[in-house]
Write a structure and sequence with these properties.
The protein is built from 7 helices and 9 strands. The chain is α/β, with parallel strands linked by helices. The protein folds into 2 domains: 75 residues, no CATH class; 111 residues, Rossmann fold (3-Layer(aba) Sandwich), CATH 3.40.50. α6 links the parallel β8 and β9.
């Protein structure tokens, strides 16, 4: 219990989680600043947001400036970025292509690799972060990502399409509604469960298209 006599000695801390709520963040901070001495925000898995610029950026260095206002207080963070030319990467025919399986229920990687041949390597991703890490690694040559959207949800398909538009995504689900949403984000929707031979044939077709 807080007594009025010692109210000046009390520190009020506002702690909350947020997910995809950048639209309300400035107002939230402004309101919290009216009574809280400190504000702690925990990002609970927000998805990728595409920034829209007023003009096309040329190659060079820039600074993203993030500004937050709360009453008379103002916090500014500068984040340097550098743009580069877009280069279309084409793997050599002899290069080993990679397929990422984002699901705990798909066929064993070894069994699927045997059906795809020695020019394709299959790796598993136990989380969304691992899926992005596998694709984003230099010279990874990932052609196809197979996602169990019953486990990982539509957000992973949407974010993969935004960040890696040249990588083909296969979305597998037992629910037609989820498959329809996945197709809207550029994925190939396949009703599950999928026999290994059928999945291998689809991966072969997509990786060479």
């Amino acid at each position: 219990m807080v007594h009025d006599a010692g109210i000046d000695d009390v520190t009020f801390i506002c702690a909350t989680t947020m997910r995809n709520e950048a639209w309300i963040l400035p107002r939230f901070l402004a309101c919290a600043a009216l009574w809280a001495d400190s504000v702690v925000l925990v990002d609970d898995g927000s998805t990728v947001v595409t920034l829209k610029f007023k003009r096309k950026l040329t190659v060079g260095g820039y600074a993203l400036v993030w500004a937050a206002h709360a009453g008379t207080d103002r916090q500014v963070i500068r984040q340097p970025i550098r743009t580069a030319k877009t280069v279309r990467m084409t793997a050599l025919p002899s290069a080993v292509a990679k397929v990422v399986l984002a699901s705990p229920s798909f066929p064993e990687s070894r069994d699927l690799s045997g059906k795809l041949g020695h020019t394709t390597r299959v790796v598993r991703a136990a989380s969304t972060d691992q899926a992005f890490a596998q694709i984003g690694t230099a010279n990874s040559n990932v052609r196809v990502v197979v996602v169990d959207i019953d486990t990982y949800g539509i957000a992973l398909v949407r974010d993969l399409h935004k960040v890696f538009p040249n990588v083909r995504v296969v979305a597998i689900s037992r629910h037609p509604t989820l498959l329809a949403h996945a197709v809207k984000y550029g994925a190939v929707g396949v009703p599950g469960p999928v026999p290994p031979a059928q999945l291998a044939a689809l991966i072969k077709r997509l990786s060479h298209s």
